[in-house]
Each structure stands twice: as structure tokens, then as C-alpha cells.
# Entry
Amino acid sequence: MSGPIALRCSQFVVKELNKSERKEVLLTVDLFPDLSSDEVYNQSMALAKADAKKAIKNVLKPLLSDRLIPIMLEKSGLDDQLTYDNIPKQKWLELCKLMKAFPVIVKGTLSIEEAFVTGGGVQLKEIDPSTMQSKLVNGLYFCGEILDIHGYTGGYNITAAFSTGYMAGKSAAQQV
Ligand SMILES: Cc1cc2nc3c(=O)[nH]c(=O)nc-3n(C[C@H](O)[C@H](O)[C@H](O)COP(=O)(O)OP(=O)(O)OC[C@H]3O[C@@H](n4cnc5c(N)ncnc54)[C@H](O)[C@@H]3O)c2cc1C
# Structure
């Protein structure tokens, strides 16, 4: 998995793996957060019914990305050539269940060499935020990735590095 959502989730996965000493974490992806399970069922069935001669792999195109369709059909045990008249209701329910809670088993995160942002580092409670000076060692200043912060995905780590860097540099110069 990649992209902003995976980056954002990764810290929670690491914490959960460390906390519970489990080998894996189950995530579920809701592909239709604005619809209830019943609405997903009714709307997908209505689509199939409206185009009753169409194979379900094509019926699902307005709902799911092309790459997801074969995976979803396989996982719910549906033949991709089925049409509305011969859809087994139970299996379609299974498909809708997957659309609302697609399971992803996460076994870990990538290595430090591949990390975009790292958690851990110098604890914030040991730093005066108005100067970025260490509360433990006079004249020692910290900024950026060395701090135990990870900003919200979307540019906030660079923002944090710039702003803490500005403050640490300015305060250090003033002290000198
Ligand atoms: C692939 C990738 C993509 C990212 N994308 C984003 C993004 O889109 N938005 C966002 O906000 N953040 C992003 N980040 C995170 C962001 O880049 C960092 O949070 C930020 O660069 C941290 O700044 P920094 O100055 O603290 O550390 P760094 O940028 O890591 O700078 C540390 C510098 O110190 C140097 N250095 C290390 N050891 C020594 C030494 N002994 N002597 C001298 N120099 C040394 C290193 O070579 C490096 O130049 C991304 C990170 C990666 C890896």
C-alpha cells in the first residue's frame, strides 16, 4: 500500500504492533463511507438490473476502480461474466460487505531507508518550544526530523522542519 492514506495510517500500525506485540494488524477499507451497507446493496443491484444483459464486471465499473473489480469478484466468489438474472444473492451480499469493509492485513511498515517521515526522537517535553532549546542541556537546540513529531501528511513535516529550524537558529544566534 502506498500514498497519503498509507503514510497517515503507518504510525498507528507501528504503535499497535508495538503495543500488542502482535505480528499483524487488520485494517478495513470502507469504499463507500457515505452509504450504508443496505444502500450499497440496493444501488449496486439497481445498476445490474438497469443493464440486465451486461456482465457484472462491467456493471461494477461506475462503482469500483478497474483494478479492484477482479479482486472483489474473486473474493466474493462471483463469476465476472454473470448477469443480473443469475446473480446469487448471498454472494452479492458478500461483495457488498467487501465494499464496506475490505480487509487488509498489515504485517509491518517499510524500512527506515525507505521512510518518508519517522516517529520517535527527542521528546518535546524536554524542549522549550519558544526557543527550541533543550531543557536538559543549555545551548543545545533541536529542529526538524530529530524531534519526536510527525506532521500531518501533505507538507506539514517540511513546515515543521522550517519553522522549528527558523526558531532554533534564531534563538541560538541570539544566545551567542
Ligand atoms: C521521500 C520523502 C518524501 C517526503 N515528502 C514529504 C512531503 O511531501 N511533505 C513533507 O512535509 N515532508 C516530506 N518528507 C519529510 C521531510 O522531507 C522531512 O521531514 C524534512 O526534510 C526534515 O528536515 P530536516 O532538516 O530535519 O532533516 P533532513 O532534510 O533529513 O536534513 C538533514 C541533513 O543533515 C545531513 N546530515 C546527516 N548527518 C550529518 C552529519 N553527520 N554531518 C553533516 N550533515 C549531516 C543530511 O545529509 C541532510 O542533508 C519526505 C521525506 C522523504 C524521505
Notes: The radius of gyration is 24 Å. The chain has two domains: 4-106, 124-175. Strands lie at 25-29, 102-106, 127-128, 133-134.
